[in-house]
Amino acid sequence: MILNCKYGMNSVDLAFTPALELAQLIRDRQISPLELTQVYLDRIQQYNPQLGSFFTVAGEIAMADAKAKTEQLAQTSEVNSLPPFFGVPTAIKDLNAVAEMPLSYGISALKHNIPNYDDGVVTRIKRAGFIILGKTATSQLGSFPYTEPPGFPPTRNPWHQDYVAGGSSGGAAAAVAAGLCPIAQGSDGGGSIRIPAACCGLVGIKPSRGRVSNAPVGDFQSGIATHGPLGRTVADAAALLDVMAGYLTGDPYWLPSPAISFLAATRQPSTPLKIAFSTQVASFGEPEEVIKKAVHKTVQLLAEMGHYVEPGCPDVQELTDPFKRIWQAGVLASGVPLEVLSPLNCWLGEQARNTGDYLQAVHQMQIISREIVAFFDRFDLLVLPVYLQQPIKVGEWAKLSPEETVENIINWIAPCPPFNASGLPGITLPMGQDEKGLPVGVQLIGKPADELTVIRVAAQLEKLSDRLLFQRIEL
After folding, report:
1. Catalytic residue among 11, 32, 53, 93, which?
2. Which pLDDT tens digit goes with each residue over 247-266?
3. Residue 379 dihedral angles phi and psi, to the nearest 5°
4. SS3 string of the chain?
5. Is the model's pTM score more than 0.90?
6. Catalytic option among 168, 270, 334, 465
7. What angle do CA 187, 374, 193 make, to 5 degrees?
8. In this structure, are residues 204 and 173 in contact, taking their beta carbons and an 8 Å threshold?
9. How do strand 203-206 and strand 426-433 relate by DSSP bridges?
10. What is the pLDDT of residue 468?
């Protein structure tokens, strides 16, 4: 199908066009919000049954919004007055409330729970002009780095559907990678944006603690979790972070606005920086060889860009136990009866009955986090793997005991939780593919509240890497 587009794009071309470019096409009146929304809804109808990327497809709501925006566009003489992503479709992770759409948290018993309000981050996304296509799949309560909640289809990796798309924002990552939406919101409490972004060949940003509001709720896991964007380009992810960021009344943590927009940072050159790198974290050992090569490739590119790079990594050896106890307590703090949860979440919740243990874990985590942050007194950035093994197969750990599964999770995603604990910003970039065709990702971690540097360097790396490998996927 050729649409009314000056470049003669067909529907597949449009589906894989970056969100910022789509916004400009709408402003140029080369395509309407209604046409574009239909492109994505058609692809969702065709591919979601095999990918499991959406729990809920809100087709009627999305089309009504798209029709209203198309009419608004026709009546607007000054398109620059429109919000930045006017008419561009997106999706919201099913851990966040969107009025009139189900909010299940990945719990089958809550499939018909429909809130009458929007979370604060959703309000910001709507105000930016986005059209919400539906709710993307998440692991149950967002607890796990793969997305296979009981009562829902598993979320599969578009690059190789035998493998997981990561989690807990697995549905968001699979949807963007497969061209079912151009950009999506996710959240990260222990790698839940960075892991699926790496699994699916995307850019994922975990912002600093306090950058994005959790309104209208407060905080029940001591600030380890935050909302963030997943996109196909650094510029798209940065621009969505601009939309999502900002204080809302009563937030327990907040940061001042940066000197420039995050999108503007993608267009700035970086001055020479001192950058540390490591292929391993604490005592978890070396990652798979293809992941090590991706880290070394990143380091080589950074050196060619004029940055000073040297081996180094903060000591996070003692973080595993307190972080695990806070993770367990999050299940209990959700308020969901354990009997309706999966056996693994139920087991996690049962381990967290002692309030004193939780408070002690928070105390220990904060002490260790000070040491992690102090590492960045000497370095501007840190380059690490995102995980230590490539994505597992769908259902690979389904028959393991809860204890075995938790141990496997900890050993897989070890490079991610230290920066949730310390509240530092990070970004995931694709840096190659393995022999199965699965993407390989690396992460850049920055100083406290310094997303600008992280994004600036990531944008430069993107220009030098084989980023075009991940622009389109054949399903």
Report:
1. 93
2. 999 999 999 999 999 999 99
3. -135, 150
4. CECCCCCCCEHHHHHCCCHHHHHHHHHCCCCCHHHHHHHHHHHHHHHHHHHCCEEEECHHHHHHHHHHHHHHHHHCCCHHHCCCCCCCEEEEECCCCCCCCCCCCCCHHHCCCCCCCCCHHHHHHHHCCCEEEEEECCCHHHCCCCCCCCCCCCCEECCEEEEECCCCCHHHHHHHHCCCCCEEEEEECCCCCHHHHHHHCCEEEECCCCCECCCCCCCCCCCCCEEEEEECCHHHHHHHHHHHEECCCCCCCCCCCCCCCHHHHCCCCCCCCEEEECCCCCCCCCCCHHHHHHHHHHHHHHHHCCCEEEECCCCCHHHHHHHHHHHHHHHHHCCCCHHHCCHHHHHHHHCCCCHHHHHHHHHHHHHHHHHHHHHCCCCCEEEEECCCCCCCECCCCCCCCHHHHHHHHHHHCCCCHHHHHCCCCEEEEEEEECCCCCEEEEEEEECCCCHHHHHHHHHHHHHHCCHHHHCCCCC
5. yes
6. 168
7. 15
8. yes
9. antiparallel
10. 54
For the segment 431-473, what is each residue's pLDDT rounded down to a tens digit? 999 999 999 999 999 999 999 999 999 999 999 886 655 667 8
Beta bridge partners of 183: 231
323-330 average pLDDT score:
91
| Predicted local distance difference test score (pLDDT) of residue 353 | 73
> Is 168 a residue of the active site?
yes
The CATH superfamily label for domain 11-470 reads: Amidase signature (AS) domain (3.90.1300.10)
CA distance 367 to 377: 16
Q: Name the token pair of 92.
A: 């919201």
Contact 291, 388 (CB under 8 A): yes
| Owner of token pair 């790079």 | 309
User: pLDDT confidence of 38, banded at 50, 70, 90?
Assistant: very high
Query: Per residue in 61-89, pLDDT tens?
Result: 999 999 999 999 999 999 999 999 999 99
For residue 475, what pLDDT band results from cuts at 50, 70 and 90?
confident
Is 293 a residue of the active site?
no
- Return the pLDDT at 428: 98
- Cβ-proximal residues to 102 (8 Å cutoff; 6+ apart), any chain: 55, 56, 94, 110, 111, 112, 113, 114, 135
Among 235, 313, 303, residue whose Cα is nearest residue 278: 313
For 403-425, the pLDDT digits (tens) are 999 999 999 999 999 999 999 99
192 an active-site residue? yes
Determine which one of 139, 192, 261, 334 is catalytic.
Answer: 192
Question: Does residue 101 carry a pLDDT above 60?
Answer: yes
Domain definitions of the chain by residue range: 11-470
- Whole-angstrom CA distances from 180 to 105, 133, 184, 227 are 21, 9, 10, 20
